[in-house]
Design a protein that fits this description.
Blueprint lengths: L8 H8 L3 E4 L4 H11 L4 H6 L4 E2 L1 E3 L9 E3 L2 H5 L3 E8 L10 E8 L5 E7 L4 E13 L2 E6 L7 E4 L2 E5 L4 E6 L4 E2 L11 E4 L2 E6 L9 E5 L6 E5 L10 E5 L14 E2 L3 E3 L1
Parallel strand pairs: 8-14
Antiparallel strand pairs: 1-15, 1-19, 2-8, 3-4, 5-6, 6-7, 7-8, 8-9, 10-11, 11-12, 12-15, 13-14, 16-17, 17-18, 18-20
Length: 263
Amino acid sequence: MSTPSGTNTRAHSEVQSGVHLRRTDENAAEIEALFGRYGGPVGVPGVLGGLDRQATQVPVPGLAVAWGFTWDEEDRVDGGWWPQGITNSAHVPGVDRRLVVTSWYAKDDRGSRITVVDLDTLRYRHVLLVVPELRAGRVVLRPLAVHAGGLVWAGPYLYVAGTRRGLFTCRMDDIVEVEPGEESFGHRFVLPVRFAYDAQHDRDQMRYSFLSLDRSTEVPHLVAGEYGRDEMTRRIVRYPLDPGTYDLRADQDGVSRPVSFDD
């Protein structure tokens, strides 16, 4: 059997071994109930209208770095939240402001969140990631408890790395403004998970630790990799995206399979 150029036999055999993602059903009813409870979504424009924190430009070491920024003092000293992944709006249709989105995870029960940063003003706001659930006819919010080590904002979707669980997918238009309180851990804005891509495999499980978007070809690709220490694997996979919808391309059986697998 021949192998694609630039792909060794082991990498090609790993693709065939069964690492793949399977999309779950959408949380459509739950999200509609969330919209009904709070008056509908506000999306990214709603967050941009309520940026409440100020970052500061700072010098950053590195030969290729022009500049960087640091969070406000409250976030810098907060030991409960840990910054992780980063993405931006550079290739998102309909967004005319230069935005950076970062992810954070909490080591307690608050789950994970994103931060939307306006690069022109360095104003920013935190948005809690949630999984809406219907209980006795009422929608409740459960925090998304993942490490959120990687992010990709592609088209309407925000892909969030879920390590051994796969990927969690939100639509940025689904951001909702809520009353800050115990359920939202003080956040005024929440972003519900619309569906997930469950990580499945025949043998060695893939860990989706970090993410990137490759637009170097006509068909964009979602690139995912593993963080590993000692004897842990450190693999990278590439999944093709539909260039019109930015959904992961799927086979007739509803499974998304990587086109390359580098070990």
